[in-house]
Specification:
Elements: H1 21-24, E1 33-36, E2 52-57, H2 61-76, E3 80-81, E4 90-95, H3 100-119, E5 124-129, H4 135-144, E6 150-152, H5 160-169, E7 174-176, E8 183-186, E9 196-200, E10 202-203, H6 214-217, E11 222-223, H7 226-238, E12 243-247, H8 265-272, E13 279-283, H9 292-298, E14 307-309, H10 317-323, H11 329-342, E15 347-354, H12 361-374, E16 378-383, H13 401-424, E17 430-438, E18 445-449, E19 455-459, E20 468-476, E21 481-486
Parallel strand pairs: 1-8, 2-3, 2-4, 4-5, 5-6, 6-7, 9-12, 12-13, 14-15, 15-16, 19-21
Antiparallel strand pairs: 10-11, 17-18, 17-20, 18-19, 20-21
Helix pairs in contact: 8-9, 12-13
């Protein structure tokens, strides 16, 4: 539904679909259409000349990549980037709704921007990203932050030029949040920087984990056509990118929505493997859909790196059931065993939520024991945060706050020990490093990443930036490997 709502009209509720599991589960598979954009309209091509933009990005890689698309469109309209908000003619907040603290940050920033907007009424302020898909957030912005000029949703990014036009020429707040969620927009400009690139292979999520807002903010699961994905990656290879991360909330569900062809994530990886890009990563994979075909393809290695981010969320089958993750502890551990057997030097990382409603001490202990068994190299750990409208928000949240914090601390302490031990195994090994540039703290020290995405610091000349080198690990630390550059020596790649 397309709508532009005048500031004075107070009833916005009819324009939104608040999170509703029942409604969202009715999603059809047949109405995905792919649109190929023709580029910026002629009347908008120079509208930004002499003006500057700033985009603040919150949340996951999906949002980071959406920001690249918006930068691409803004620069095609003549805008130039700035990092200084005092210097910006447009400021966009690309928001995240995953946990309450993510939302709090955005409202805090809006508070700061109010003064700026009062001083410079010509400044255009926009809010986009996942929070804009939530009706309660949009209402709150309308009521308490009425100085915002544009609100647009995750399905409306390609409409940015048109929305800007409305904001410039109209006097009212421009709100456009489509609840239609079946489309894929191709050919949007993207501003990529550096040597690494993100490529969306699919959008949305149909998993409906009971705690998670993403299926509502990002819409239904829909895969880009393989030919479009492969053409984009080939183009990035031609442009000299060294590393590509394939993006999706649930990448291994890729292709399941195609009605006219059988082509899975394993098939896609097998085709991407043949493209001349040194490193290919992907995020995020869901344990439920991790099939044997995918393991078999990943084991072929080459440019497919030995790192798998495999969120487990909990080590307790009972909690997993209430999270609706659709796998058990045993299934997850079997999968890990299978992966380790096929790829012995694999590095596994994960996401874990503590303090899910009803999580008992014993169930939390099961998470710790699973972490000890899998021995992850790192983990993103979170305290459960209720999200309005999700099924878990209606469950009794009987774990006291201090218990949640204590569990998080115990989990993080354990992860620190394991990460340190995992890195210690690399002492004396030679690793292949993609050099990203000078380290943040010392210009003489270069910083880069291994195939398994571990951070490496070593002394070397700046000219090595963007190149692959071999580094001997001399001082493994918990979250960093310190090493020495190895000259012209064949490496055992780790
Ligand atoms: N699609 C990915 C995850 C995307 S969100 C997957 O399924 O693995 C990233 C992580 O945020 C999740 O893995 C989960 O650990 C965490 N998360 C999501 N919703 C949350 C909530 N309501 N409270 C706390 N953590 C949450
Ligand atoms: Fe959220 Fe689950 Fe979908 Fe991941 S798979 S985005 S955690 S609903
Ligand atoms: Fe956040 Fe949306 Fe990503 S809620 S984690 S930005 S998909």
């Amino acid at each position: 539904m397309d709508k532009t709502i005048p500031k004075s009209d107070k009833d916005y509720s009819i324009y939104f679909q608040p999170p509703s599991l029942k409604e969202a589960k009715k999603r059809g598979k047949e109405d995905v259409s792919v649109h190929y954009e023709a580029g910026i309209a002629d009347d908008m091509k120079t509208i930004g000349v002499g003006k500057r933009y700033l985009i603040r990005t919150y949340g996951c890689q999906m949002n980071e990549h959406d920001t690249e698309v918006m930068k691409g469109m803004l620069e095609d309209m003549g805008y130039e980037p700035t990092e200084d908000k005092l210097d910006a003619d447009i400021i966009l907040l690309n928001t995240c709704a995953i946990r309450e603290n993510a939302e709090d940050k955005v409202f805090g920033e809006l508070g700061h921007l109010k003064t700026l907007k009062q001083e410079r009424p010509g400044l255009i302020l926009g809010v986009c990203g996942c929070m804009s898909q939530e009706e309660s957030v949009v209402n709150r912005i309308m009521q308490k932050h009425a100085f915002v000029d544009i609100i647009f949703g995750t399905h409306n990014i390609h409409r940015l030029p048109a929305l800007l036009k409305e904001a410039y020429y109209g006097k009212e707040m421009v709100v456009e949040v489509w609840s239609k969620e079946g489309d894929i927009i191709e050919n949007l400009p993207k501003k990529r920087e550096g040597m690494k690139a993100w490529v969306n292979i699919m959008y949305g999520c149909d998993k409906f984990c009971t705690y998670c807002i993403v299926p509502y903010t990002r819409g239904k699961e829909r895969s880009r056509r393989p030919e479009d994905v492969l053409a984009e990656i080939r183009d990035l290879a031609r442009k000299g990118f060294q590393e590509i991360t394939l993006l999706g909330q649930n990448v291994n569900a890729y292709g399941k929505d195609f009605t006219d062809l059988t082509y899975t994530f394993g098939d896609l990886m097998d085709d991407v493997r043949k493209i001349d890009i040194p490193r290919i990563r992907f995020t995020t994979s869901h344990p439920r859909d991790f099939d044997d075909r995918l393991i078999e393809v990943l084991a072929k290695k080459g440019n497919l790196v030995e790192h798998i981010h495999l969120p487990v969320q909990s080590g307790s089958t009972e909690v997993l059931k209430r999270m609706s993750r659709k796998y058990s502890r045993e299934h997850y551990l079997q999968l890990v065993a299978k992966i380790k057997q096929a790829i012995p030097d694999v590095m596994l990382t994960t996401d874990i939520i503590v303090g899910f409603p009803g999580e008992t001490d014993e169930q939390f202990e099961e998470t710790l024991s699973l972490v000890r068994e899998v021995r992850y190299d790192s983990a993103f750990t979170f305290i459960y945060s209720p999200r309005d409208g999700t099924p878990a928000a209606g469950m009794e949240d009987n774990v006291p706050e201090d218990v949640k914090k204590e569990r998080l601390k115990r989990l993080n302490d354990l992860m620190t020990v394991i990460a340190r031990e995992r890195n210690e195994l690399l002492r004396g090994e030679i690793v292949e490093v993609l050099v990203e540039g000078e380290s943040k703290t010392n210009p003489d020290v270069l910083s880069g990443r291994t195939r398994t995405n571990k951070l490496v610091h070593f002394y070397g000349s700046k000219e090595l930036s963007g190149r692959f080198v071999h580094v001997k690990v001399t001082e493994p630390q918990t979250w960093l490997l310190k090493g020495e550059l190895v000259q012209a020596q064949p490496a055992r790649v780790v």
